Amino acid sequence: MHKISRLAALLVAGAIVSTPLLAQNKTFATVNGQAIPQSVYDAFMTEQKAQGAQDGPELQNAVKEELIRRELLAQEAKKRGLDKKDTVPGQVELAKQAVLIRAYLTDYVRTNPITEERLKAEYETIKANIGETEYKVHHILVEKEDEAKAIIAKLDKGEKFSELAKQSKDPGSRDNGGDLGWNSPAAYVKPFGEALPQLKKGEYTKTPVKTDFGYHVIQVEDSRPASPPPYEQVKQQLQQRASQQQIEQLVKDLRAKAKVN
Q1: CA distances (Å), 44 to each of 30, 66, 93, 98, 151, in order?
Q2: Last residue of a domain, one of 82, 111, 140
């Protein structure tokens, strides 16, 4: 038996809004005299196939039974007046709205494709920001400048960076000697990243580096030439990022033109 994806619930809730008027006039099944539109069945099937389900009698029967169960439960909810109670009407409208928005944005992205030239230009910009060198970095993060100065004084006396890192307030690195791995300076907030090229292999900052997170003592363990991934490897990520930026700009433009009272 096929399991029906829960992600399909949104489609079912808003299928009447998102399908052609012609499909709405057709009935797929009736439950206690209440019609289930063909458009709802079609939307649910589309969702299941998008989730990897194979079309066939087994899936079709599974979808049919699921829609019947949903209709029975919905009818009982209406009998109790729950369709008009509290926030339920608003939730139904939000679900319909979400389907419409998804349909619109999908269509917008399809009809306004991101060009290969734009993606390659973005790739080159990222490569330039990465720079020619990446660094293997350790750090100790503390709240106050005096704490950072005290740590630097202990390092000057020969205490081990890895031991002092245990007092760092960065939970992701303190138990690993403060290790942040290999990264380019651009991967860090500006004051932190700017400190890296100033340090030679094995050196640490002689004055605390202040960021919004607190005060850092930074050590560069090693450096090497940067090797950004090839374009084809990151093309899909660039596509997703560009599409997000495109949608954000669309929303900004719509908001700027909207009359809101």
Answers
A1: 16, 10, 19, 16, 61
A2: 111
Contact 218, 204 (CB under 8 A): yes
CATH number at residue 168: 3.10.50.40
pLDDT tens, position by position, 100-156? 999 999 999 999 999 999 999 999 998 988 889 999 999 999 999 999 999 999 999
What per-residue confidence (pLDDT) applies to 57?
95
At residue 130, the pLDDT reads 87
Residue 145 contacts by C-beta under 8 Å, 6 or more apart in sequence?
208, 210, 215
User: Domain range holding 48?
Assistant: 8-111
Into how many domains does the chain fold? 2
Would you say 152 and 203 are in contact if contact means Cβ atoms under 8 Å apart? no
Residues 13, 72 within the same domain: yes
